[in-house]
Amino acid sequence: MELQLAIDLVNTEEAIQLVKEVEDHIDIVEIGTPVVINEGLGAVKAMKEAFPNLKVLADLKIMDAAGYEVMKASEAGADMITILGAAEDASIQGAVDEAKKQNKKILVDMIAVKDIESRAKELDELGVDYICVHTGYDLQAAGKNSFEDLKAIKRVVKNAKTAVAGGIKLETINEVVEAQPDLVIVGGGITGQDDKKGTAAKIQELIKQN
Ligand SMILES: O=C([C@H](O)CO)[C@H](O)[C@H](O)COP(=O)(O)O
Predict the structure, then answer these.
(1) Cα(191) to centroid of ligand 1, in Å?
(2) Is residue 110 lining ligand 1, measured as CB closer than 6 Å?
(3) How far is CA 161 from the centre of its chain?
(4) Helix (H, G, I), strand (E, B) or coil at 190
(5) In this structure, which residue's CA is closest to atom 4 in ligand 1?
(6) Are 106 and 80 in contact (CB under 8 A)?
(7) Is the CB of residue 31 below 6 angstroms from any atom belonging to ligand 1?
(8) Cβ(55)–Cβ(83) under 8 Å?
(9) Do 96 and 68 form a contact (C-beta atoms < 8 A)?
(10) Ligand 1, atom 9, residue with closest C-alpha
């Protein structure tokens, strides 16, 4: 089980400072969608240059022109790129094919997908690397989480790795770990804490026991 730190609400310089604090306790650093919107793929490039030993995920949440966008993110140094599960199969296939060419990984974000189980099965057959259930900020505000969705995809996904994101904190990590995802994504649960390093270390310890 791996830990991904999601960085969303800061600029590139602040993101790099954040990662310096917790780099020993994470496997993957995510350049979040708001950062990419604000600063472009330069943020991905700067992060990879600052931390060549960490995997960098570009959270582009691709919806179309997938092959091209995966190619550009790869050129910027991303090791993993996200596409939305709601995208057309042709887009998913384009992303998968380009990622294979570039030796990168595709993570599908299932945000807003209604029939999680059926879509996860289809995506698995299309050859994506990770399928991630995700409660975005706007539904987190309404008290939702993705723990049941994680159990649902675990029932049907045979080849891809499974991941979970959205409002995960030290207080809820045990429930997440019990469902045995391959990847746990934590943003505000680490970046919003006074003791970021200590919190990341505790989350990492609980994750690595599994
Ligand atoms: O993908 C995300 C969100 O849509 C904003 O871009 C976050 O990175 C993801 O939700 C993880 O962050 P937390 O919910 O703060 O853990």
Answers:
(1) 11
(2) no
(3) 12
(4) helix
(5) 136
(6) yes
(7) no
(8) no
(9) no
(10) 166
Q: For the chain (length 210 residues), average pLDDT per consecutive 10? A: 96 97 98 97 98 98 98 98 98 98 98 97 98 94 90 96 97 94 97 97 92
Ligand 1: nearest atom to the Cα of 140? 14
Reported ipTM exceeds the 0.95 cut? yes
Report the nearest atom of ligand 1 relative to the CA of 134.
10
Taking CA atoms only, the protein residue closest to ligand 1 atom 13 is 187
| CA 153 vs CA 15, 83, 148: distances in Å | 31, 17, 9
Distance, in Å, from the CA atom of 120 to the CA atom of 115, rounded to the nearest integer, reads: 8
Distance of CA 10 from the midpoint of ligand 1 (Å): 13
Whether 34 is in the pocket of ligand 1, judged by its Cβ within 6 Å, is: yes
Ligand 1 atom showing the smallest separation from residue 135 Cα = 10
Q: Is 83 in the pocket of ligand 1 (CB under 6 A)?
A: no
d(C-alpha 70, C-alpha 60), whole Å: 9
- Whether 127 and 96 have beta carbons less than 8 Å apart is answered as yes
Answer for the pair 64, 42: CB distance below 8 angstroms, yes or no. Answer: no
CB 54 within 8 A of CB 26: yes
Interhelix angle 116-125/147-156, rounded to 10 degrees, is 40
With vertex at residue 66, the alpha carbon angle to CA 181 and CA 71, rounded to the nearest 5 degrees, is 95
Distance of CA 21 to the CA centre of its chain: 20
CA distance 201 to 24: 8
Number of H helices, E strands in the chain: 11, 8
